[in-house]
Input
Amino acid sequence: MTADIPSLVEFRHDLHRHPELGFEESRTKAKVAAVLRDLGLEVHEGVGVVGVLKSGIGNRAIGLRADMDALPIQEQSSHNYVSNNLGVMHACGHDGHTSMLLGAATTLANDPNFDGTVVFIFQPNEELGLGAQAMINEGFLENFPIDEVYAIHNLPGAPLGQVSTRDGLICSSESIFEITISGQGGHASMPQKGRDAITIGAELVNALQTIVSRKLAPGAGAVVSVTEFLSDGQRNVLPGSATLKGDARARSPKDRQDIEKYMRQFAKGIATMHGVSVAFDFNTEFIETINAADPTNGLINTAQSMGLETIPNREPMSFSEDFAHFAAAVPGCFMLLGNGETGAHGQPLHANDYDFNDDLLPIGRDLWVNLVRERLPKVDR
Ligand SMILES: [Zn+2]
Ligand SMILES: [Zn+2]
Output
């Protein structure tokens, strides 16, 4: 691949035609690794792909992350590069993120003009929040020591090329929970002989809604949603068992821990009150993504020096990002880049008619390149 725009667009469309789900990105990984090798980078293939580019004698290193996975969504687009894989679609723009970062690798390999090491990170399985940790478990942080780490995510509905980020929390955590109440089934006409799991479960659903409204500070930005309520009852059979499932979001580790604590306390308390047993499971799939001040200010300076519209202190996002694991280990910055406001470019992420904006490819590529040259400046010796 060369750095010119048509080839970046072609590359992106090729990825779009061949989307792959998390941890199944074999074709995408092979294509990414081939480009990096052609450019002369040191390439490491594990669960993801890592390319290393060194220039000069500087010993500082920065990591730039792209994600490669697609979603289990049936695409409903009419463009000529629609997904060939039934039920799988690049509906989050990771095809664009991967292409932008390869564009930056191409430019920097051909004309480095920086001093230090750039680690290009192509992670698998962002969508389920498993890929970054899998790379870390493989020894990423030890094998590729970096001083800073960055990621770009496109933002549909925002003006093309608008850069927005913030110091501190940028994306919420996501935890999923499952609570099973084990009562006593029986005849619907004789409730006194059973312990109806639905009535108890309903009480718990309401109690859980008081965590955000009464236990956390106003404006904490947390969410507790019960999304499933399953029982083994029938029209004339009292349920002996009820399972509540749902999703909780938090904007700080403390709030996340408090949500878990109160959920557990309420579940146990209501179960005890009714003389039934309860099983509680709370699993954090995505931790909070927290930006560090120095890389965030650096990124804002780069974007402003390029003349891009910049929002340096945007509202935090309520969605979650697997990049959180990299940013928890190394000072980092997660930024959003406007994908455009109209048509498929303005459709929400994960919509079946969303599309990454090809006009963003050169903008994102240049943002990466300029960021590298400003964070790893060449010094005259
Ligand atoms: Zn997504
Ligand atoms: Zn995404």
About this structure: The first helix runs from residue 5 to 17. Residues 173-286 form a domain with the Alpha-Beta Plaits fold (CATH 3.30.70.360). The first strand starts at residue 42 and ends at 45.
